[in-house]
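Researcher: I'm comparing several assemblies side by side, and this is the next one on my list. It has 994 residues spread over two chains. Same procedure as the others: predict the full complex and return the structure.
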Amino acid sequence: MGGLPVLKFDPLNIQKFSDEALKVIEFITNYYKNVQKYPVRSQVEPGFLQNVYPKTAPLQPTSLETILQEIQNDIIPGITHWQSPNFFAFFPATISNAAFHGEMLCTALNVVGFNWICSPAATELEMIVMDWLAKLFNLPQSFLFAGEGGGVIQGSTSEGLICVLSAARDKALKQFGEDAITKLVVYASDQTHFVVQKAAKLVGIPSKNFRVIPTSLSNQFAVTPKAVEVAVERDVESGLMPFFLCATVGATPSGSTDPIEGLGLLAQKYGLWFHIDAAYAGSALICPELRHYLIGTEHANSISMNLHKWFLTNLDCSGLWVKNRSDLLDTLSMTAEVMRNDASESKNVVDFMDWQIASGRRFRALKLWLVLRRYGVQNLMIHIRSDIELAKHLEALVKSDQRFEVVVPVKFSLVCFRLKPEKQQGEESLKELNWKLMEAVNSSGRAYMTHAVLGDIFVIRCAIGTSLTEEKHVNGLWELIQEKTQLVLKERLVMGN
Amino acid sequence: MGGLPVLKFDPLNIQKFSDEALKVIEFITNYYKNVQKYPVRSQVEPGFLQNVYPKTAPLQPTSLETILQEIQNDIIPGITHWQSPNFFAFFPATISNAAFHGEMLCTALNVVGFNWICSPAATELEMIVMDWLAKLFNLPQSFLFAGEGGGVIQGSTSEGLICVLSAARDKALKQFGEDAITKLVVYASDQTHFVVQKAAKLVGIPSKNFRVIPTSLSNQFAVTPKAVEVAVERDVESGLMPFFLCATVGATPSGSTDPIEGLGLLAQKYGLWFHIDAAYAGSALICPELRHYLIGTEHANSISMNLHKWFLTNLDCSGLWVKNRSDLLDTLSMTAEVMRNDASESKNVVDFMDWQIASGRRFRALKLWLVLRRYGVQNLMIHIRSDIELAKHLEALVKSDQRFEVVVPVKFSLVCFRLKPEKQQGEESLKELNWKLMEAVNSSGRAYMTHAVLGDIFVIRCAIGTSLTEEKHVNGLWELIQEKTQLVLKERLVMGN
């Protein structure tokens, strides 16, 4: 083979691997040391990078040192710092040393685990940890691999929803015929994350067949089985086919939790697939004192939670458990000759590509396993409980200031409150005032919170619990809120409102 | 807040971050140094881990050292080593130092970039690199952000397919009405990856409306526009509604490439959404001498390629480009109050959650950018070309042995061949013989190849190009194949076949 050119390029350079990685580790350590100093919400303007950056890819290589310098100078200012201890927006995306190690190992092995033979350890470790978690959450036995169910790691709640919605759809269509697809109806509450509606649309359910059941302050924004039943009955009467009900434990806007037992019985009565979306709050249910939120889960067909939110396993790691794995397999199982192998044909193994949208998949179980092994359930419970304590601490601070109102009692680590300086005031004016307050906090760069509208009440959402957040950061936030409150109230006075 | 317990648990421990990471880096370096010594395809039996591992999560923490030791002892034997230089199965999942750095940084920052404000740098850097790549592949101007299109990083081809299939579906339904969903028809060839069929099923297209157009050896397994047109015409006549055509550049079974220009014109004639799946071979098209495979792409609506296959960016990193981003947005754009922000409302920014299934997303652009910056296009072309050279080298070796046959001429880095010791022999008997040969190679642990059935021809597929594969490994593979060939031929003689 004398004609071949000498290979000049060595993309996976083992000799340099350790030294180079060390430089990146040093960069990351410095980042964490300094992250509190950066404005939490990025303060750049649209186009800040796009308008100044080269328009074509470089022909020549660049040194790692130069690149790291460029990340520091050009990229970091454009980062909204989700790892800042002063990040209180959306829900925190927690991380940990153990998860970081898991991610490094997953990246380095870079196995593509579509089926068992592609790396038996990747499949079996995932089955093991998903069973571990199912037991920690006290899920019914049927959700375990030893039962008829099992758990699988998805990239997102949305991907899991597409799997269960299409499985439920195909089950319904088998009964009613393919043409029935335009008559299938999904039920969820106004607190449900929009990804449920989006997933329903993606699997072909007409948008007009998505029912948003209203909730109210008087019921702490939980949906009532009665309200759902009224909607279901109305649809049945008009010749439609109810087939899917989604409940939420720890909704994004308010942290509300739906009554699982009541909804589950209702789902059973009408033959609906019952899914529980516990994206945010699910992780907390490893604590025995919180598990009551899942009472009634034996009536559910599936449950999902984003472990990458509160479970210290960085993005992405979303758990999905199903009661009958055959439901999933009936819709998702499909393969190619190139993947045919004795183990799969023996039916003695799990091929996780039959449990998800894609065929390829990363060895994400590794980081989940590392988090559980490295810290133990004991520490993970401390982690959850201390976040909830911090949220209750902030709730108490807010309550102690008569200008403020806590709109929904804190259940987990989300505090929904608003500034309400006078008793009689229109919602529109309060909304404007609270938006101003929130923006004053956020644009200061010293903290970042987001908002929600519950019914017609505009609330500031403070979601506590990044991996670096401590009591002093919550206290600092409250001081900042008070400082900005004085400012916006004074401004309002001047404006004559 | 005297009542709060002292926080005893510190999940993101900055003090220990560097020392601990270093231990993992050392582990990984050793793994790469030894990876050639491990059996490429794992030799464990089903249940090897599941049957022996604790059935419940540990309450107590475990040290990093113990865990790394356990990975070495318990996990590594269950790994099929995709990073072994002797891995020739499926398609390689390449990795590089630069991508590893990118993944570490992405993990550490752990930003959830659903919209621009969540980290402007994450969005803008993705726009920049996707435009860079579009230019490198010589995609028409319309696929750039400066045009009406743009590119986005997906987790997999499948996710991208769900996006474009649902966008195409909704476009068609807008025209024909919602009830038409059961009449929509998708066209692909028998070389198309099954994920297209699966994605079509997931978005609600009835399975009976998926047309698999046969290909043949005489046409090197490319589909002909004529054959597609006959199928389309037949469907139109029966009152169905053709709406989606998928072409492949570098198909998984054979490496075949469909005629883009002819299929594109056909799609235009019948108003079909035309998608190009270049999952495997796409990355190679940065080399000017290969770009001719994309001639006609101006007729396409979308094109996808798995950069995590051949572009040195480890799993997951799948590029999707569309000609009209408004098509995607019409179906995928949906948001919640909690995400409302001034930048999004100004419409001056891209919110990538409107380009994908999920709302959350990792900062994957970072690793793609690092690969491009760190190596430069120059080195990336060397990387692609040397893999192709190695494949042609193996093709020559196979051709030089009269007992073998190269079934499809090598275009990229996939060699499809078979053992065919006598001229007149039935396909069934050849299939059995080649399966035996392949299994003899694979079960030796010294290399791993997979197979395909092209028409009725069983071929062994040798996909070249892991990041560590060099000429000596290809030569070693060929020696191994010859050694095992002697064995299976001798065995056959003894068995009297």
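Model: For your comparison table: Residues 1-6 of chain B have pLDDT under 50 and may be disordered.
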